[in-house]
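Re-run requested by the PI after the first attempt was lost when the workstation crashed. Everything re-entered from the original request form. Ligand of interest: adenosine-5'-diphosphate.
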Amino acid sequence: MFISGEWRDARSGGSFEVEDPATGEVIASVPDGGADDARAAVAAAHDAFKGWSTSTAAARADLLYRAWQLMTDRSEALAELMTREQGKPLKASRAEVKYAADFLRFYAEEATRVTGEWLPSARPDQRFLVLRQPVGVVAMITPWNYPVSMLTRKMAPALAAGCTLVLKAAEATPLCARAVFEIFEEAGTPPGVVNLVTALDPKPIGEVFTTDPHVAKLTFTGSTAVGRHLAGVAAGNLKRVSVELGGHAPFVVFPDADPVRAAKGAAALKFLNAGQACISPNRMYVHEQHEDAFVTTMVERVSKVRAGNGFDDGVGVGPLVDEAAVAKVADQVDDAVGRGADPLVGGHRLGDGEFTRGHFYAPTLLAGVGDGMKIYREETFGPVAPVITYGDVDEVIDLANDTNYGLAAYVYTRDFSTAIRAFEGLRFGIIGVNDVNPTAASAPFGGMGDSGIGREGSHDGIEEYLETKLGGFAL
Ligand code: ADP
């Protein structure tokens, strides 16, 4: 763990093991921190806040530029570590490291653009000045599915704003977190400004993060159930809260779309990170006139997606994070098939040969999915593409919106009016129109409803770490 600028063991002396999800092999052991370690880290961040929050924006920008340079220089080693620890194909790990580094550079630039306002008053002898200041110590909890970019997406804007921070990494991916903190250490971050705790049991850490009076804000990325609980406790203590949670993205193919292009997009998008992404499409609504063309192209594409160890050439889908993840996917697919869905490709676990010791599920295409099946309502987080055939164009936006989640949605159409109507009508924070990658450091990422509160990336992302202060000046 990294506390007060030093690498430390857990106070208890305990540690836990990290496994390669493709082979089940133990690759490292890391400190198993507890509540006292979390409190020490919060105290360190609190002590460092005065100095960091009053440093110049240019100095904070320089630190982030140095971190960006270091991450870029060691991107190949980081990508390899990510594939080893998290399982995604090496090509996908490289893309994530690039995305992660983009946040460092973007917020290096943004640090110097935090400004104030001079406002008019109704009184001739009064002036108003509005100042933007860092909120204080930020507690961060991050997931395992994007083990580097989910850190920089929170750390970079917080640091740019002048906040200090304590981060608890996901128990499945502490090594990637350690590598990110090594970069911040080498970039010259003053002691206590960034602190890392690792723990096998996240609960005591979450308890400190949501109750310690020195924590001003909690930012969480993970499941809706945990995020709802932690946000509730933190808000009860009047801490600021940002939570980026689950999704259940619709993917709508309109009658005026090119079904082949849509299917190619769907196949490329669905199997990213083995479907373990909150913006992964989970309901593919295909108009009946395109069903044949869409499904034929999907069968072709999905059949070619190779599962395997992320280090092997040509592998498109790595392992799932653990056995529970495989069991959840299997349960959803079995339930759908039991209720009439047709597994056109895959539809089963992979457990023989090279798959014996890892956590694999076959890339799967399910046709004939409908309401009443678990997969229609629940987030899958696995490599399964569910196709729902619809007939009524006037109803499809309502069908797509019929979920408590509201993170990402995708539409395919060649008609400008259809695109604008869908963009306006879908209740989701991110809409891809003929676009399966509507994300970038410069663009706001976040959802509505059960998908969370707040935005990350873009100028909105730094606002989450700033307080507004008003000064009234009588002349
Ligand atoms: P996922 O499905 O992505 O594993 P989780 O919400 O379980 O989603 O995990 C996301 C992050 O939240 C991880 O860092 C995990 O350790 C942490 N976490 C899970 N439960 C708690 C809790 N009760 N308190 C604090 N953090 C938690």
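Saved to the shared folder this time. The chain has a mean pLDDT of 97.
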